[in-house]
């Protein structure tokens, strides 16, 4: 039984990782072939870094992701505080609206925002670009910030805010001294989630970007043309970044757990 | 007083969540001049076969995901606690790669000159048409969304109180019976949210069908995309299609919510 | 002794529902006052009004003779020990206790002295660096008390502070709290639904129900002279029996006439008769005015609790001697043991 589960797990891992390793292996191939390894080269990586379009779209992606995740963290934190103090009915209504972008298919969110932006672009004389992209990204980012923070309020002792006031803090400083430290883990994980989703987003960006290309859009247009080992090189780099980030994150989490004595 | 600070967000969500969806509805029920019409919603009926195909392919992919993911979640939950988070991390890691790249990987593997056909060629077999088939589309969906099924199921199974399992054994259940009678019913909420998280993106995708399905396996997503950014620019028809897609998704959510009203908590 | 806090005609409602009706209450300086009542009686609401977390819809709150209705909580010279302690999880024991002093920007040496003084008071020396999440319930309770007292409030408010502790620890903490209150000579206002706790610790007990004060008095007064059947029932176990006041000092119970010490109810008025179980004696059935059959006997440690059915009433009797189940016994009680109350309002 134990052996069988190990074998099964190994097979699923193979299924999950094999395609990625194929991409990585052929990123070092001298020819464009994806079947025959004809030699080792860093050529595709050099070409990648010299590819203006890819580099500029990478920059765009980062600009949009940073702007959108920062804005949505501020907006979402304020929203969560307010929602937490709402009465049941308005709270339910607001949370249902907040859940919309998460529940709705991405394409519907993208299309609906495109309709909105087209409507305003025509009347207010602006063009699709950074502004529309960032606004669209905030739209699908904020719900994740809010949903990350709300449970922290539930876990929090409801009297903390009053306790700080009782001990001499004014209403604003009581929030910063007693409440914010408690919801901070939620704020941080909300921000990180928003940032990752923004970096990764293709569908909503596709409908709201106009001519401003983000990295996923550029990748899409590259795969439309033909198979190019530059994409493989890009995949390899992204994969390495992902591995480094996720492994570091896990190590930090494990260290924190160990510190709190949850695991040895 | 504190309620006021959520005002900016309330305003934002009204403008960027509610209004856009109302605009979709408005476009779906009006013509280019703004007159009320049912014509576009009615026209969607012409694409019934594509809608059926989308639902079918997404449903098959979801079922395959459940079949593959459930044992994975079970095995994960039984691994020694000190390794568990590491193994879970390894299973979830591919999800962090952009799905365009993951889908692209299968293009290079399934193509006529791809890895599989070249391998078969060594034995004088093929080439078989693997790319641009419905099978390839399902494969892409399963590959892209499998982690979304593993995670919620795992989260639920791992939280099942061990004493409940002990109680079942104590009351005479065999290990197999315990799984069928205790673990499976208790993990149902996880499966339900897994279904939502796989089915919704699968039914509305236009990337997987375009990259792995060729031109012959259009899905709802492709249709909608074509009305807005493709050759057949027709936002009214596109809005009508989006509306129908939303209704399908909402219907499925409502059905699934009968089993589980806590989708978000698992999602987090 | 002067009044430190006075509530005058205080009323509060939430969502149109009256939580407090017209509360009038004077709290004397250096007293241990307990608000006692079932959940939903308004005791915590009253406490929150004194702390400043809640503004009364009408009426006034006075602190040392000055109206403080509009003074925000952080400017009031009262501190609170919250029900679930509300310790700041991101701060350690020392930082939690020092919180209020740091907000007041006292210098570090002063803070250090006062915190260690408090740690000594609550027997937590050596716990300074400990994370509050790694303390036991009783220790968290002590930190919460120290954190409030370090600010040297004139009044300490305690909202069911022992509710989460087990019985043994509760008893210990009750004595501890009383000791602290005595040694600091400040006013404690204590909220609880536990009548035993209220009777043990308080100088004055305020019994509340449905947003009204039922009775204010010393524990002995409240126990021995409850003003109505609710108080009698809530404070300890009671036999509450229908009776009729024949005339002053004479009451009819179960068809028999008894002398009593109460008067002023009018002649031939229906009343509630309250008799404490420990005031009822079991006698031989032949010479008793009321006789009944013993239905059950339970050993309670110090005494036996017996249920005796007599006429249409079931009497609860506490006695150190047990009677056999099924025996016919007599019930007797003296005039002092009979407490007459006006009929409870029918709800």
The chain pair with the largest interface is: A-B, 86 and 85 residues
Q: Residue ranges of chain B: pLDDT <50 for 5 or more in a row?
A: 262-268
Beta fraction of chain C = 35-45%
Number of strands of chain C: 20
Helix count of chain B equals: 13
Structural class of chain C: alpha+beta
Rg on CA atoms of chain B, Å: 22 Å
Oligomer: heterotrimer
SSE arrangement of chain B, N to C: HHHHHHHHHHHHH
Q: Name the CATH superfamily classification of the largest domain in chain C.
A: P-loop containing nucleotide triphosphate hydrolases
CATH fold descriptor of the largest domain in chain B = MetI-like fold
Q: Could you walk me through the main structural features you see in this protein, from its secondary elements to its overall organization?
A:
The complex is a heterotrimer of chains A (264), B (268) and C (347). Chain A has a domain at 42-225: MetI-like (MetI-like fold, Orthogonal Bundle). Chain A has helices spanning 2-26, 43-50, 52-84, 88-103, 106-124, 130-155, 160-166, 171-200, 203-208, 215-225, 229-259. Chain A has 264 residues and is an all-alpha fold. Helices cover 73% and strands 0% of the residues of chain B. In chain B, helix 9 runs antiparallel to helix 12. The relative contact order of chain B is 0.14. Chain C is α+β, with helices and mostly antiparallel strands and 347 residues long. Chain C is 24% helix and 36% strand. Chain C has eight helices and 20 strands. Chain C has helices spanning 43-51, 93-103, 108-121, 137-149, 167-184, 195-201, 219-224, 229-234, and strands spanning 3-14, 17-28, 32-36, 58-63, 66-67, 78-81, 155-159, 187-192, 204-209, 212-217, 239-247, 250-253, 256-259, 269-275, 281-283, 290-299, 304-310, 313-319, 328-332, 339-342. The longest helix of chain C has 18 residues, at 167-184. The mean pLDDT of chain C is 90. The chains are: A mainly alpha (264), B mainly alpha (268), C alpha+beta (347). The interface between A and B is large, with 86 and 85 residues.
């Amino acid at each position: 039984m134990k052996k069988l589960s190990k074998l099964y797990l190994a097979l699923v891992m193979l299924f999950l990782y094999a395609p990625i390793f194929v991409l990585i292996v052929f990123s070092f191939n001298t020819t464009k072939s994806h079947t025959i390894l004809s030699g080792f080269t860093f050529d595709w990586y050099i070409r990648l870094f010299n590819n203006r379009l890819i580099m500029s779209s990478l920059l765009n992606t980062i600009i949009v992701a940073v702007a959108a995740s920062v804005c949505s963290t501020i907006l979402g934190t304020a929203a969560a505080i307010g929602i937490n103090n709402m009465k049941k009915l308005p709270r339910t209504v607001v949370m249902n609206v907040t859940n919309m972008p998460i529940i709705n298919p991405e394409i519907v969110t993208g299309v609906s925002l495109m309709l909105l932006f087209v409507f305003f672009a025509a009347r207010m004389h602006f063009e699709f670009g950074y502004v529309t992209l960032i606004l669209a990204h905030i739209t699908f980012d904020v719900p994740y910030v809010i949903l990350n923070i709300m449970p922290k309020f539930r876990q929090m002792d409801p009297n903390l805010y009053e306790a700080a006031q009782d001990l001499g803090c004014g209403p604003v400083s009581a929030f910063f001294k007693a409440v914010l430290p408690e919801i901070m883990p939620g704020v941080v994980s909300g921000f990180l989630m928003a940032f990752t989703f923004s970096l990764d987003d293709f569908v909503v960006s596709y409908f709201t970007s106009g001519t401003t290309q983000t990295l996923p859009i550029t990748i899409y247009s590259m795969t439309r043309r033909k198979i190019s080992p530059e994409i493989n090189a890009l995949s390899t780099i992204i994969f390495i970044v992902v591995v480094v980030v996720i492994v570091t994150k896990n190590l930090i989490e494990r260290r924190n757990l160990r510190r709190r004595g949850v695991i040895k | 007083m504190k309620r006021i600070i959520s005002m900016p967000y309330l305003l934002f969500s009204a403008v960027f969540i509610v209004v856009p969806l109302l605009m979709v509805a408005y476009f779906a029920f009006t013509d280019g001049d703004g007159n009320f019409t049912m014509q576009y919603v009615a026209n969607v009926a012409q694409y019934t076969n594509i809608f059926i195909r989308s639902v079918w392919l997404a449903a098959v992919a979801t079922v395959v995901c459940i079949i593959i993911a459930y044992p994975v979640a079970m095995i994960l939950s039984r691994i020694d606690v000190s390794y568990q988070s590491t193994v879970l991390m390894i299973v979830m890691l591919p999800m962090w790669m952009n799905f365009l790249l993951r889908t692209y990987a299968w293009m290079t593997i399934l193509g006529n000159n791809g890895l599989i056909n070249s391998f078969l060629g060594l034995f004088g077999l093929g080439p078989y048409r693997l790319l641009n088939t419905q099978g390839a589309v399902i494969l892409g969906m399963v590959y892209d969304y499998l982690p979304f099924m593993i995670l919620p199921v795992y989260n639920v199974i791992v939280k099942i109180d061990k004493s409940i399992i002990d109680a079942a054994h104590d009351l005479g259940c065999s290990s197999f019976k315990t799984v069928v009678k205790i673990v499976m019913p208790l993990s149902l909420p996880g499966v339900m949210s897994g279904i939502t998280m796989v089915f919704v993106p699968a039914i509305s995708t236009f990337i997987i069908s375009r990259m792995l399905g060729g031109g012959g396996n259009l899905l709802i997503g492709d249709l909608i995309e074509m009305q807005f950014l493709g050759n057949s620019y027709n936002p009214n028809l596109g809005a009508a299609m989006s509306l129908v897609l939303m209704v399908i998704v909402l219907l499925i959510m409502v059905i699934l919510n009968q089993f589980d009203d806590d989708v978000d908590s698992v999602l987090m | 002794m002067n009044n430190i806090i006075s509530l005058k005609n205080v009323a509060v409602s939430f969502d149109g529902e009256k939580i407090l009706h017209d509360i009038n209450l004077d709290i004397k300086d250096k007293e241990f006052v307990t608000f006692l009542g079932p959940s939903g009686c308004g005791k915590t609401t009253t406490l929150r009004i004194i702390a400043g977390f809640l503004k009364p819809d009408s009426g006034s709150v006075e602190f040392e003779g000055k109206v403080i209705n509009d003074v925000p909580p952080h400017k009031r010279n009262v501190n609170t020990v919250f029900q679930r302690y509300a310790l700041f999880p991101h701060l350690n024991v020392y930082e939690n206790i020092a919180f209020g002093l740091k907000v007041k920007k006292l210098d570090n040496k002063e803070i250090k002295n006062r915190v260690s003084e408090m740690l000594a008071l609550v027997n937590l020396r050596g716990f300074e660096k400990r994370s509050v999440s790694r303390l036991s319930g009783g220790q968290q309770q002590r930190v919460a008390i120290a954190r409030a007292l370090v600010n040297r409030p004139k009044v300490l408010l305690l909202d069911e502070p022992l509710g989460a502790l087990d019985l043994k620890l509760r008893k210990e903490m009750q004595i501890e709290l009383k000791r602290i209150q005595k040694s600091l000579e400040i006013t404690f206002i204590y909220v609880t639904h536990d009548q035993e706790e209220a009777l043990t610790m308080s100088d004055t007990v305020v019994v509340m129900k449905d947003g009204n004060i039922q009775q204010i008095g010393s524990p002995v007064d409240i126990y021995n002279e409850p003003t109505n059947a609710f108080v009698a029932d809530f404070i300890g176990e009671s036999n509450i029996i229908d009776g009729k006041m024949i005339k002053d000092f004479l009451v009819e119970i179960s068809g028999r006439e008894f002398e009593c010490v109460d008067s002023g109810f009018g002649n031939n008025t229906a009343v509630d008769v309250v008799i404490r179980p420990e005031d009822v004696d079991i006698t031989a059935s032949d010479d008793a005015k009321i006789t009944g059959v013993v239905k059950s006997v339970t050993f309670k440690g110090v005494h036996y609790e017996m249920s005796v059915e007599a006429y249409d009433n079931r009497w609860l009797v506490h006695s150190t001697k047990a009677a056999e189940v099924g025996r016919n016994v007599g019930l007797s009680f003296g005039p002092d043991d009979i407490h007459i109350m006006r009929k409870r309002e029918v709800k």
